Known about the structure:
single chain; about 180 residues; alpha+beta; CATH 2.40.150.20; 9 strands
Amino acid sequence: MAAALASRFSRGRSLIGSLSNAFSGLMNSSNGIMNGNILSQQQQRTFIQMGTNLKVVDNSGAKEVKCIQSLKANKKGARLGDIIVGSVKEAIPSGKVKKGMVVYGVVVRAAMPKRRVDGSQVKFDDNAIVVVGIKEKKKQKKVEFNQPTGTRVFGPVPHEMRRKKQLKILALAQHIV
């Protein structure tokens, strides 16, 4: 409305135009504040990528792993069921895996939503892996990641692991989602 009045009255244009600009700026800033609050409540979820800290949910000895690389063709990062290479940041002293070791792990929980065929979504509160191999210094011809290092898997595991051929992890899991 202020713009319509400004076009009719050429003298008062600068005054009315500046008022309309100030009013629209005030509205935009208040909308930006509201949108910012909404975005902070939703928390944008992303792929598991290089530098992501992951919780280890098996009894291999590792507690926390930092992702070094995703072994998937997708350049964005890893999702549920993908294999990653990680460095152990925290470990218990009596475990098979020690601090500083490079390990392979399968992502069993991811904070990024994964859409299922039936239209539902599965997403978790944290990012977690199961250790399936320890990187050796010698070059191996073919490395298979079907056998987990630990003998127990804690917490829920999605049934999408069946499609990724990780049946042993499903067998060891306490709860399948």
